[in-house]
Amino acid sequence: MMNHDDDVYDDDRPSKSQRKRDMHHMQDLGEALLKLRPDQWASLDLPERLQDALREAKRLTAHGAIRRQLQFIGKLMRDVEPEPIQRYLDALGNASVEHTAWLHRMERWRDRLLEEHDALTELAEQYPAADLQVMRQLIRNAHREREQNKPPKAYRELFQQLKQLEQEPGIPHHDAAEEDDDA
C-alpha cells in the first residue's frame, strides 16, 4: 500500500521512460562526438576519461565492442553538460551547410566565366581584388583544354583563384568566454 508522501516524492522525479530517453540522448551525443576529431573534443573541455573512452571507441572494430563502448560513453556523458556540446554540433552542421553553399557559389562563377562573355565584368564589380589578367588567361586556357580534350588543369586553377576571392566559411571554435556570456 502506498501512502500520500510516496506520491509526492514520485512526482518530483522524472519517469523511467524520461530517464531512458535522456540516457539515449546522451548516448547519441556521445556517438556524434565520436565523429569529431580529438582536437575538437579538447576544445569542448570534455573530461579526460570521456576523451579516452572516445579514443578507445575509434580504435575498436568489432560491432559488439563498439556498441558496448558507446553505452559506456553514454554513461560518462551523464556527468557532462549537454547544451554546449549540442550547440557546438549544431554550429558544425550549419558551418558545413554554409561551406557547401560557398563552394557551389564559386562553381557557378567558374561555369559563368567559361560560358558568358560579360561574366568577367560582373566578377570584377563584385570582387574588385580579382586579378582579371590571370582570370582571362585561365578562361582562355580552360577553353583550349576543353577543345583539345586535355586534362582540365586551367579549369581547376580557375576554381582555386575564385576561392581566394571570398573568405571560406570556417568551422566554429568553442570559446569558454561565450559560455560565460550565456550564463
3D structure, described in words:
The structure is a single chain. This protein is an all-alpha fold and 183 residues long. It has ten helices and no strands. It folds into two domains: 4-80, Orthogonal Bundle (Diphtheria Toxin Repressor, domain 2); 95-163, PSPTO4464-like domains (Diphtheria Toxin Repressor, domain 2). 75% of the residues lie in helices and 0% in strands. α2 (16-34) crosses α5 (63-77).
Tell me the distance between the termini: 45 Å
List the secondary-structure elements in sequence, H or E.
Answer: HHHHHHHHHH
Strand residue percentage: under 5%
CATH class of the largest domain: Mainly Alpha
Overall residue-averaged pLDDT value? 83
Main β-sheet description: none
Count of individual beta strands: 0
CATH superfamily of the largest domain: PSPTO4464-like domains
Which descriptor suits the 3D outline? elongated
Give start-end ranges of low-pLDDT stretches: 171-183
Secondary structure: helix percent:
over 70%
Task: Output the keywords.
single chain; 183 residues; mainly alpha; Diphtheria Toxin Repressor, domain 2; DarP; rRNA-binding; Dual-action ribosomal maturation protein DarP; ribosome binding
Q: Quick summary of this structure?
A:
The protein is mostly helical and 183 residues long.
